[in-house]
Every structure is written in C-alpha cells, then in structure tokens.
Design goal:
693 residues, 2 domains, two-stranded antiparallel ribbon, 3% strand
C-alpha cells in the first residue's frame, strides 16, 4: 500500500512540474490537462536526466533523477514567471487549481481501478515479452546506467529501443520504489493517463468549436474509450455475433472459439493465407501486460499531438524572425520526437509526417499557396529533426538500426478482412471529413484551422492503414512475416487516431442534436469498448481467482516447486549482491519460454539469452550462434581448462544449474565444479555456484 501511495505522489509532482509547459495553450482542458501535464513533465524531466547521464557517464541513479527533476521544475516555473507573468499567475488561481485537482482525482480513481484489476495477475512469464521488458528495467535500475549492458549478451551495450523502459525506471526511482513494483505501476499509469489524455484532447477540440457541455464530456469519454479500450470489427463479428450464434446452433456451427488475441492477427489467420500481419491496439496491450515500446510511447505521442494542435491553431501571420523556427512548440515537439527515436522509432517518422501535414495545411491557410510557404514548412521540419537528433544525441550516435531497407509489398491483405477490421473507423473518418466540407459548403477556402487539423488527423489515420499494403520495412523475419512489424507499428498509431476521431465525431453529432445518430453510433462504440472488459475478465480477473498484490517477483515466484524454489533463492542472492557489474551463466533456451528468467528477474547480464531477439538486436546471427555453442560446451563437455577460459572471457561471477539447464543439456558438472564454490544445492541436483576468483 505504501508503494502505491508513493507512486501516486510522484505522478502528482510530475504533473505539477509539467503545468508551465502548457501555460499558454489555445486549448482549454476541463480537468486542467492533468494527463497531458504528466506526459510532458515526465518526458522532459526524464530526457534531461538521461541526456546528462549518457553524455558525461554519470550514474543514472537517485541523485541524477532527483536533481534533474528539481532543475527542470525550477527552470520551467522561473521561465514562465519571467516571460509570461500574467499566464503564470493565472496558473495558480483558484479555478485553475480546482481543475487540476479534479484531474488528479480522476487519475487516482482510474489508477486505483487498474491496480485492483492488475493485482489479479501481477506476475510475468515467458509467453510474451514481459521477461524482456522487466529485464531491461531491472538492468537499468541495477547498473544505474543511462545505456545499460545487454542482460542477454554480457559485455555488449543493449541495442534496442529502450528509452521508454529507461523512462519507466526513471519514474520508478522518482517514486522511491523498485522495478518489481514500478513495472506494474507503470502499466496501470499508462491505462489511466492515456484515457485522460485522449479525453483532454478530444474535449478541448470540441470546446474550441464551442460545443455544448454534453458534447464536450460525451465526446471526450467516447474518444477515450475508442482509443484505449476498444477492440476492432473482428471482435464484434467473432467475439460477439459468432459467439451468440454458437450458443444458438451449438456444434452445428463449426467456428473456432474466440480468444481475445485473435483480433490482433486476423489479417493472416482464420483462414491462414501465408502473409501474417499484426494490427494490435492499446486495449489488447493494456490487458496483455507487456510494457512494450509502442505502449510506453503513448505517454508522449498524445502530448505531442496536443502541442502540435495548439501550434496549428495559432495565428502564424504574427510570427517574426527566429520565432518562425524556434517557437517553444517547435522545441518541445522536437524533444518529444527525440524520445520517440529511442523509445519506439516507428513513432518518429509517423508523427514527424503527421506534424508536417498539419503544419503545412495551417501554413497554407495563413500564407497561401506560395513557394515561400513550402520552404518555411520545410525549414521548420529541419529544425524539429535537428532538435530530435541532438536531444538524444548519445542514442542517435550509438544505436545500430535493425532494418535493411524499404521494399515494395508483393502481398496484400484480403479486402473482406480489411473491411471487417477497419470498416467502422474508415466510415467514421470519412463521415467526419464529408461533414466538415458540407458545413463549409464544399469550399476549401472556407475551411478553418480546426477543420484542417481534423481532416489531417483523419487522412493520416487512413494512410497508416494503407501504407503497409504498399510498402514495408525489411527486417530479419521470414517471407510470411515481411509486413508483420510494419503493419504492427503503423496501424497501432492509426487505431489511436481513429479513437480520437470517433470522439470528435460523437461530439459533433451531439452538438447538432442528432440524437438518433448519437445513440446508434454510441452503441457501436460501447460494444467495441467492451473488448477491454471482456478480455480483462478472462486474462486478469479469472486467472488467479484472488488478489495477489503488485510485486512482480513475489507473485511470479510465489509457488515453490523445487525448480522455482531454486530460482527464487538464486534471485534473492543476486539482488542482495550490490555490485553493479556482476555476470552470470545460465542455459540458452528458446524465445518466449521460461529460459533465461534469472537474468530477466535480476538484470544481471548472462552470456546469451533469447537467441532470436538477440539476432534482431545484433543485426546478425553470428555472435548469437557462437555464444550459444560456447554455453552448450560449458555445460556438456567437461573440459575444465576450456571452461576456465570461458569464465575469464566473459567475467562470470555466478553459475546456475536448474531444471532448464538439465532439459537443454547433458550437464557434466565435472567440467566446472572445481572452478566454483557451492552456494546451494537441492536434492534434484539444482545448483547455484560462485566462481572462484
């Protein structure tokens, strides 16, 4: 309970820090913009700490985290006080503080609900990528490193988009808790804050159009549900309609039983077509519990949209001199784009293009269709790119990309499946665009900035769905999975944009008092949004049958058969060893299994783990295959001399021999017992050994 309270206090403090960043916004937030304040505050304060530590090789520990937070808090407030005192004073008046506290209360309620549900399944396992996500957090926390050593390839820097997990570790330290709590708290925070941020975005756009109170709140709520909780059309068809038909017709209806992940891979399945793609969405990710890059980055993509929209709504004719290119909005967007580069790289080009489109539309509106207008937009794009590059310079220079070019798509999704998945949001986006043009009498010249922004969002959402049908980014995956990652990352953001659009459309319908349309569309959105509750009931609530708490390690290692008991004991020993640079040796198993859990649970690097992941991260299988063979030889060959050389080569401090190692290898202890001291040994021969120095 104390950990929960400390986390809530941290969120409040970070949101309070972020308030001056939105001090002069054209958008009005009914809850004081609490969620967006937290998103911007967390992003900027983390970036300051990370950049400073990474640039000067300073420990990424409590001192750096707290000092950077204080520096940014003081800096933002002093800057606002000096250069915009009127707005700064207004920020602290009673009405603004009441709105902010209202937002804080909303967060506490949503976060508490998420904590309660997550407490039924707080543990992690190897079925998905929880081991990877938790292991990265543990390694950053343990090593106090801005760029940690790869916990699955000791001696190498982690070559992955880890800044989102680094920011999660930053917030974990800021709350004075450990990753065993911070991992699940971060998931619960993302659920609550994402709902709030989408609500704030949608409701503020409706307010800008002077919508009614009902349209503001109902549109905001439905936008949140559509972006964060909803499933897609596959869920309606197979998760509801077919399920009802099976109850009516029983065994006569031969259709596969619905399982909630099915809605994310329908393109290539049921029936299989040899072209697998993924169209994941936030509702699924929230339930699954992977603290993955595309989920964490929502913490900054939504504030990016808020800053972008606020910038687009401003009168560009008043821009003079250097403010054309170094407006505070441009700077903040550039810094957030920099985080995208190291957190979820795909979001960088996606939102860079979205920014370009919206800025271009509004610049043309302000200055007309002139060559100079296009040059100005291009120049602003260059400035944003430069800020993004420099803002995360150590990452920009040190990361090795995992892709090998852009290719033309030679396979395409079946049209009827596309209609099932994307039909509803495409109709909604098209309806919004047509509605705007009808209200403006079909004249482009009559379009206001808010019209252009909404049209751009709708077109970008549809474009993100269409692009994987035309091109894909090549990676290591085989012929049947060529479009998998491209479709995954692009359509994830499309889904979020479609959710925002659904709220805007609902707000417009209600503002015009089209009640029949409002009820019909609202019913569709509610049915889609039931996805998260249906899935959560199956995956979280019914899984354990009782509340287990929020500690990852305590819940995961709670059951104690001898093999898990040995792992638990080894984990406790490694966590008590306070040295930052220790390494261990464990068996190299397959990806998406319980192999290499010891390194994941503790963040202590092992020689080799999860080979396919490392193959992707290293851009080559050669080092992965070589290490895998070295580990096999160590456990099996019984060659004391060769084993001694390997221990020295990789600086191994501990060796684990458990159930997994006995299943993987014909273990020959004679090859390493003389080189180690026994820490413990079970009746079944499970051992944890310390290497003699």
């Amino acid at each position: 309970m104390l950990s929960v309270v400390k986390w809530i206090i941290m969120v409040f403090a970070v949101a309070l820090l972020g308030r001056p960043a939105l001090i002069r916004t054209k958008l009005k937030y009914v809850d004081g913009g609490f969620g967006l304040n937290f998103g911007i505050g967390s992003g900027l304060s983390f970036l300051l700490a990370w950049l400073f530590c990474a640039s000067f090789s300073i420990p990424f520990g409590n001192a750096a985290v707290i000092i950077s937070f204080i520096i940014l808090a003081l800096g933002l407030n002093l800057y606002s006080y000096k250069f915009d005192r009127e707005s700064f004073v207004r920020l602290w008046n009673r009405s603004e503080l009441v709105r902010f506290l209202f937002g804080f209360l909303a967060f506490v309620l949503l976060f508490s609900f998420a904590v309660w549900i997550k407490g039924y399944r707080p543990e992690i396992d190897g079925q998905t990528e929880k081991y990877m996500d938790f292991g990265i957090m543990q390694s950053i926390y343990r090593q106090e490193s801005a760029w940690p050593e790869d916990f699955w390839m000791s001696g190498s820097k982690l070559n992955y988009y880890f800044l989102g997990l680094s920011a999660s570790t930053y917030l974990t330290r800021l709350a004075f808790v450990t990753p065993t709590f911070g991992y699940n708290f971060m998931l619960c925070t993302l659920f609550a804050i994402s709902l709030m941020m989408v609500f704030e975005l949608v409701s503020s756009l409706i307010i800008h159009r002077q919508g009614s109170v009902a349209s503001v709140y109902i549109g905001g709520v439905f936008g949140s549900l559509g972006a964060v909780c909803a499933g897609n059309g596959h869920y309606i068809l197979f998760g509801i309609v077919v399920r009802i038909l099976k109850k009516i017709f029983g065994e006569n209806l031969i259709v596969k039983d619905y399982w909630f992940p099915d809605s994310t891979v329908y393109i290539g399945t049921n029936p299989e077509v040899g072209d697998f793609g993924k169209h994941e969405f936030p509702g699924y990710t929230m339930i699954l519990g992977d603290l993955h890059a595309h989920l964490v980055n929502m913490l900054w993509t939504l504030p990016f949209l808020a800053v972008l929209i606020d910038y687009a709504l401003r009168d560009k004719t008043k821009e003079k001199g250097i403010k054309h290119f170094f407006d505070v909005h441009i700077i903040v967007m550039g810094l957030l784009l920099g985080i995208f580069r190291g957190s979820n790289f795909w979001d960088f080009p996606i939102y860079y293009v979205i920014a370009g489109g919206i800025i271009l539309f509004t610049e043309l509106c302000a200055h007309g269709v002139k060559p100079l207008t296009f040059l100005m937009v291009l120049a602003k794009g260059v400035v944003m790119y430069a800020i993004a590059f420099v803002g995360t310079l150590p990452f920009s220079l040190g990361f090795k990309k995992m892709i090998s070019g852009i290719c033309i798509a030679h396979t395409h999704s079946q049209f009827y499946k596309m209609v099932i998945i994307w039909g509803i949001p495409f109709v909604a986006a098209t309806a919004l665009i047509l509605w705007i043009f009808v209200r403006r009498k079909g004249s482009i010249k009559l379009l206001a900035r808010i019209d252009l922004i909404e049209i751009a969002l709708a077109l970008c959402a549809m474009g993100l769905v269409i692009v994987p049908e035309l091109i894909y980014v090549k990676d290591i995956y085989g012929e049947q999975y060529t479009r998998f990652n491209t479709m995954f990352k692009l359509t994830y953001q499309a889904f979020i944009l479609f959710g925002i659009i659904s709220g805007i459309l609902m707000g417009r319908i209600i503002a015009l008092k089209k009640w029949k349309w409002a009820v019909s569309y609202g019913l569709i959105l509610l049915i889609l949004s039931s996805y998260i509750f249906t899935s959560g009931k199956v995956w979280l609530y019914k899984h354990g049958g009782s509340f287990k708490g929020l500690s990852v390690l305590e819940a995961t290692l709670k059951d104690e058969p001898e093999d898990k008991g040995a792992i638990k004991e080894a984990v406790n020993i490694l966590l008590k060893d306070e040295r930052k640079d220790i390494r261990l040796l464990e068996g190299v198993g397959g990806d998406y299994t319980d192999s290499n859990c010891l390194s994941s649970f503790t963040g202590v690097p092992t020689v080799e783990g999860w080979p396919v992941h490392e193959w992707l991260w290293q851009n080559s299988y050669d080092p992965v295959g070589a290490r895998t063979e070295e580990v096999r030889s160590f456990y099996e060959d019984g060659n004391v001399s060769a084993n001694y050389e390997m221990l020295q080569k990789y600086g191994i401090d501990y060796i684990f021999v458990g159930k997994g190692e006995y299943e993987l290898y014909n273990v020959n202890p004679e090859g390493f017992l003389t080189l180690t001291n026994e820490i413990f040994k079970t009746e079944n021969g499970y051992m944890f050994l310390k290497v003699k120095k």
